[in-house]
Amino acid sequence: MPAAGADQLSFELVCTKAHNVCPEQDIGGVPMKALFLVGVLLVVLGIVSLFVPIPRKEDKGIQAGDVKIGVQVEHNERVAPIISAVLIVVGGGLMIAGRKRTGA
């Protein structure tokens, strides 16, 4: 007669195969490949945000009755470096969490 532990083990194997869930490929219901891809996207956005300014247009003027005098001013603003660093670090963490496990 097999031990109770063996029945539980075979049941767990059947459940994971039936639901197509593998502990090495799934973290909290999110496929590891998706984590890796989101991590790559965040790293790229973080690096790009260090160098590429974001253009912004602003209308300034006055209005007196039916007459309006205005000027359109364009600003090129950069994202704060700390935000870029956070994007890069979080993206790197997701890439590490989402990489395929080798061995074990």
What do these coordinates show?
- With 104 residues, this protein is of the alpha+beta class.
- The chain has one domain.
- 51% of the residues lie in helices and 25% in strands.
- A two-stranded antiparallel ribbon has the order 1-2.
- β1 and β2 form a beta hairpin.
- About 13% of the residues have low confidence.
Ordered list of secondary-structure elements with their pairings:
Blueprint: H1 4-18, E1 26-27, E2 30-31, H2 32-51, E3 54-64, E4 67-77, H3 81-98
Helix pairs in contact: 2-3
Question: Helical region count?
Answer: 3
**What's the structural domain tally?**
1
Strand content: 25-35%
Computed over alpha carbons, the radius of gyration is: 26 Å
Helix content: 40-55%
Shape: elongated
The protein's oligomeric status is: single chain
Order of helices and strands: HEEHEEH
Mean pLDDT over all positions: 77
Strand order in space, largest sheet: 1-2
**How far apart are the termini?**
30 Å
| Structural category | alpha+beta
Catalogue the unreliable spans. 5-18
Query: How many strand segments?
Result: 4
| Main beta-sheet strand count, sense and barrel state | 2 strands, antiparallel
Using brief descriptors, characterize the structure shown.
4 strands; alpha+beta; 104 residues
Quick recap of the structure?
The protein is of the alpha+beta class. 51% of the residues lie in helices and 25% in strands. The chain has one domain (24-98).
